[in-house]
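Take a sample.
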Amino acid sequence: MVDWKRGLRRVVYPAYEARVLRRMPDSLPKHVGVMLDGNRRWARSVGRDTAHGHQAGADNIEPLLGWCDEVGIEVVTLWLLSTDNLNRPSDELASLMDIIEATVESLAERRRWRLHPVGALDLLPSSTAEKLKAAEEATRDVDGMLVNVAVGYGGRREIADAVRSLLSEHASRGTSLEELAQIIDVEHIAEHLYTKGQPDPDLVIRTSGEQRLGGFLLWQSAKSEFYFCEAYWPDFRRVDFLRAIRAYALRERRYGA
């Protein structure tokens, strides 16, 4: 019965996906943020260990980026590891860092996308931080979609880092705190975010059924649309992605007006 159902899906889903693509509205997002959630729960559901779940999740990243290319997304932000995740057991973290490093290196070698690490790299093992920076440098001249790789990322930490950077910049100019207090506005802070110069995310997707931000792009997602998917990240399919994009395209964005 299971094999029969799988065979039916292999026939039905491509046709369904093609129909969704043909009927896709024009108002597509330029920037999509993805919270790749549920790797550990997926691993438990199939009777495997945590490392297997993280690897299965990593294996689904390149297909996702291909789907994004297919519909013309310009920027993708992938949340691979939060600052809170750094408190996980050391053996799990070591395995996860190895998987992240290998994944980022593989994406860089493809030279299909421009990679940009976002996060508190100083909190990461030096080898991980170095490989993230090397991937960015190796793809700097690639004429492709921009992919933000969020590792050691936390939205509150990003805002604190932005304010710290802003203060340091004005201190070097000799600006007093009183003078800065008179002129500072949201754009000043935005210019010091990890994603400075990029459009804010139009759409944020979270897998695994959780319906919360958890600190993802807190500043940038103030006017984003959200799509929550029940599938664990390793099970997230092209059809799930297309449904998310279609759901976004059918919404009326009012920006608080």
In short: The chain has a mean pLDDT of 92.
